[in-house]
Amino acid sequence: SWQITPVILTQAIAHPDPATANNSFSHSAEWALDNCRTTSSPTSWHMGQSDCTGIVRDASSQDLIFHYTLPASAILGTLTFQHAFGGYRNADFTLTDSVAIDIDPENDGSFVNLDLWKQGINNPTVMTPAGPYNLAPFNATHGTTVAFRFRFQSAANWVGGQNSAAGWDVDDIVLTYSTV
Length: 180
Hints:
This protein has 180 residues and is mostly beta strands. It has no helices and eleven strands. Helix content is 0%, strand content 45%. A hairpin with a 7-residue loop joins strand 7 and strand 8.
């Protein structure tokens, strides 16, 4: 007797973004391509002042959002990037600036947090790999456009003192997925 075994071919696809051109869907005015801290020259995404000497200190959120359009049969893989962050915190750590990476698999405005870093607690101060974040849990629900949000959150209306926090730099964003 003969048995037919189906063969499923998959193609792994990496969607790299070395942060040398504005491929974002949207970003707050505080985000720009700059050469403050990079892992792949000449620029990275920088949240902070254009001269790399300070950050927004007004208890606000600053977002950098990317949309990735995927084939209908896409199977999400991982997300990785390089980043470094320096912000503000108070002496007893009850108020800390933070940064986060979030995913919106349905692109409907409802983001799910993948990771969070807080100033003085777990923030990388030099360019450091983040991830790989396993995106497989979102395969059952993702749409043809998947959104990722890099969010800086200022913890307070910081007053006084020199504004010398380094800000947040993000470089070498890579989304991987496969197709059937």
